[in-house]
Automatic annotation (TrEMBL):
InterPro entries: aa-tRNA-synth_I_cd-bd, aa-tRNA-synth_I_codon-bd_sub2, aa-tRNA-synth_I_CS, aa_tRNA-synth_I_cd-bd_sf, Glu-tRNA-ligase_bac/mito, Glu/Gln-tRNA-synth, Glu/Gln-tRNA-synth_Ib_cat-dom, GluQ/Sye. Residues 327-464 form the Aminoacyl-tRNA synthetase class I anticodon-binding domain. Residues 11-312 form the Glutamyl/glutaminyl-tRNA synthetase class Ib catalytic domain. This is Glutamate--tRNA ligase. A motif ('HIGH' region) lies at residues 17-27. It comes from Sphingomonas cremea. Belongs to the class-I aminoacyl-tRNA synthetase family. Glutamate--tRNA ligase type 1 subfamily. Its main location: cytoplasm.
């Protein structure tokens, strides 16, 4: 457990999604790790929307990302930072790099670049930009150009990554990548570096698929003489089969876990926390405990494996812990309940949530409470109601109608008396009762069902399905 003495002062982290789609599960975990690291150290956690790809960035995607972060409780501190609003600043830095001799105007045409790339492929060698414009300043007037970094060609660059350890790359491996396109707009590589510097980001926590980008970005940072951030490149999430996570593994948008799969935010928070990070054998970790315990030291170097079944089991735990009124409010839209009907759902929650793994199962288990008579029986329930079973229902109906106080123990005693008097096992009577009362073969305990439905409704549902003795 970290103590106050080893807290890092002045920590600023950021989550920087591109709004070209939903907030996927890997992005949500990256956001969570950044949020936790900042909270643990008493620092700031910022949200930057990297919307410079105007053709693919959409308002719907931006709204979905912000909504998903809000739902998980990991919104950024302050308003989101929109990258597209700072293109002039990005271009300004590119021209500063030219003035420093660390970047240059490149007038190579797309056709020339294509020809050189094809020649490298034909010769089976890696394609590296080797522009004759790198050391020239006799720039032609009015001709289109891009601005390229003049990447160092000698020596090597090293990053002391908090997860990956020390990683070293020869500078010769870094090509003269583009900073500004011919239309004057910045590339991702330039915009990210400028934004991180201007936002005061001290720690960059992101997926290890960005590790190679870090060396390109360092070339800009060092050329500008800026303070280098601390990097932590976390392994990606894989499916159970070890392959890169995809939709077939359950890689859905955060909103799908909420709206389609019925997952609670605290369950997804806890599950994402444990994907690649651990604290001993602890599995159930709440928000405040996570803030206290979280550190980068315990992020593993190997990819974690996403397991939807494990998430649902964890969600079941949080359902059982959740406030009954909150759960009723979450489930009630599925039934279009009036305000007057909500108390019944709240009363039923202790029994309903004991067996559910998600809000969909919770809603399904509550359907019997609001079903209209005569109940539609599912196939399994209908199969239980043989003529013999319907005759037994009539016996139970008579006994239940005579119960003076409609409460669990009295109902239990009455039904058991019927079973014993007719040499029936309790299940032989309870199962047809369940079918008649709920239309299904699974439900909360049968006596709890009777109490929840009340005397009049219970007796009416039984009467709908019973045969008179000797009929």
């Amino acid at each position: 457990m970290a103590s106050a003495s080893n807290k890092i002062s002045g920590v600023v982290t950021r989550f920087a999604p591109s709004p070209t789609g939903y907030l996927h599960i890997g992005g949500a975990r990256t956001a969570l790790f950044n949020w936790l690291f900042a909270r643990h150290h008493g620092g700031q956690y910022l949200l930057r929307i990297e919307d410079t790809d105007r053709a693919r960035s959409t308002k719907e995607a931006i709204d979905a990302i912000i909504d998903g972060l809000d739902w998980l409780g990991i919104s950024g501190d302050g308003d989101p930072y929109f990258q597209s609003q700072f293109e002039k600043r990005h271009a300004e830095v590119a021209h500063q790099l030219i003035e420093r001799g660390a970047a240059y105007r490149c007038y190579l045409t797309p056709e020339e670049l294509t020809a050189r790339r094809e020649k490298a492929q034909a010769e089976r060698r890696p394609f590296r930009i080797d522009s004759e414009w790198r050391d020239r300043t006799d720039w032609p007037d009015g001709e289109p150009y891009v601005v390229r970094i003049a990447a160092p060609r000698q020596g090597e660059a090293a990053i002391d990554d908090l997860v990956q350890g020390t990683v070293t790359v020869a500078n010769a491996e870094i090509d003269d990548f583009v900073l500004l396109r011919s239309d004057g707009t910045p590339t991702y590589m330039l915009a990210v570096v400028v934004d991180d510097h201007d936002m005061g980001v001290t720690h960059i926590i992101r997926g290890d698929d960005h590790l190679n980008n870090a060396f390109r970005q360092l070339a800009i940072i060092r050329a500008m003489g800026w303070t280098e951030p601390t990097y932590a490149h976390i392994p990606l999430i894989h499916g159970q089969d070890g392959a890169k996570l995809s939709k077939r593994h359950g890689a859905l948008g955060v909103e799908a876990y909420r709206d389609e799969l019925g997952i609670l935010p605290e369950a997804l928070f806890n599950y994402l926390l444990r994907l690649g990070w651990g604290h001993g054998d602890d599995e159930i970790i709440g928000r405040e405990q996570a803030i206290e315990w979280f550190d980068i030291d315990h992020v593993g170097k190997s990819p974690s494996r996403f397991d939807l079944k494990k998430l649902e089991n964890l969600n079941g735990h949080y359902l059982r812990e959740a406030d009954n009124g909150r759960l009723a409010t979450l489930v009630s839209p599925k039934f279009g309940l009036s305000y007057e009907e909500l108390p019944l759902l709240i009363r039923a929650m202790p029994e309903l949530k004991a067996r559910a793994h998600n809000l969909n199962e919770l809603a399904e288990s509550a359907e019997f409470l609001f079903a209209q008579r005569p109940l539609a029986l599912d196939d399994k329930a209908a199969a239980l109601l043989s003529d013999e079973a319907r005759t037994h229902l009539a016996l139970a109906h008579a006994a239940l109608a005579a119960v003076p106080k409609w409460e669990h123990d009295s109902l239990d005693a009455a039904v058991r008396e019927v079973a014993e008097s007719n040499a029936l096992k309790l299940g032989k009577l309870a199962q047809p009762l369940r079918a008649a009362l709920t239309g299904k073969t699974t439900s909360p305990g049968i006596f709890d069902v009777l109490v929840l439905l009340g005397k009049d409704e219970s007796l009416a549902r039984i009467a709908d399905q019973m045969l008179e003795p000797n009929a």
